[in-house]
Amino acid sequence: MGKCSGDLRLPLTPMAEGNLKKLSQAMSDVRSSLTISWRSGIIVCGVGGRMGGAVVRAIQQSPDVKLVAAIDKPGSARLGKDAGEMSAAGHLGVRNHG
To answer: How many other CB atoms are there within 10 angstroms of residue 66's CB atom?
Structure first.
C-alpha cells in the first residue's frame, strides 16, 4: 500500500509499483556513485561564485579531502585559472574548466 496525503492509504497500480522499484534502484546507484566520488575527490561546480569559493577553502583546510576538478560557467573570464587562487585558498594546481 502506498501512502498519500495524511493517513489516506491507496493501493499502488502495477505500473506505479514498477516505477517505484526503478526509482529505488536509481537512488541506490546514485548513492554508490557519490561514495566512489567522495573517495576519489571532490568536484566543485560554480567555483567562481561565493559558495563555490567557500567550498574550495573548506576542502583546502580538510586534510582527508582533495579537490580534483573545478567548473565555472562557460565563457567566464575565470576559466583556466587555478581554483585555489580564485578562492583565496592558495595555489592548488586545479584549473577552472567551463
So the answer is: 14
pLDDT for 17-36, tens place per residue?
776 777 677 666 666 555 55
Q: Kindly state the cell numbers that stand for 15.
A: 505500473
The CA-atom distances, in angstroms, between 62 and each of 41, 42, 49, 66, 68 are: 12, 12, 20, 8, 14
CB burial of 84-94 (b: ≥16 within 10 Å; e: otherwise) equals bebbebeebeb
For the chain, give percent helix, strand, coil, nearest 5: 45, 15, 40
Whole-prediction pTM value? 0.57
